[in-house]
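Thread: Newbie trying to understand structure tokens

Hi all, I'm a second-year student working on a class project, and my supervisor (Dr. K.) asked me to get a predicted structure for one chain before our next meeting. I've only ever worked with sequences, so writing a 3D structure as a token string is new to me. If someone could post the tokens and maybe explain what I'm looking at, I'd be very grateful. Here's the chain:
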Amino acid sequence: MPATTGGIPACPLATDRQRRLALQLTDMIPGAVRIRVSLQDPQRAWPQPHARAWDVAGTRIELSRTVAKIAARWVLRVWPDADWNVAHTMDLTTATLTTAAWGR
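---
Reply by user tm_fold:
Sure, no problem. This is what the structure looks like when written as tokens:
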């Protein structure tokens, strides 16, 4: 998250950062309610941040490669202690991160 002068985070509390990220991702990906983030881009052989988004009906929203990478990086930065060997799903309505259950 962007820092103010002096290196102090704009949102010092973790829950504030998570809510702020959810709002930013909602603006960046209109209609998205869930984002799945992993380090396994299906188009690449090496680990690389990757995100996929779904709407409220469970329909996948197509993301450009740039948006997918940026969204994944932002989520990775807000939850650096998560086990990124497995995919995680961020619920944009509650700003929570859970281990991903494929297709849910």
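A couple of things are worth pointing out once you decode it. Residues 33 and 74 are 16 Å apart (CA to CA). The chain has one domain: 14-99. Feel free to ask follow-ups in this thread.
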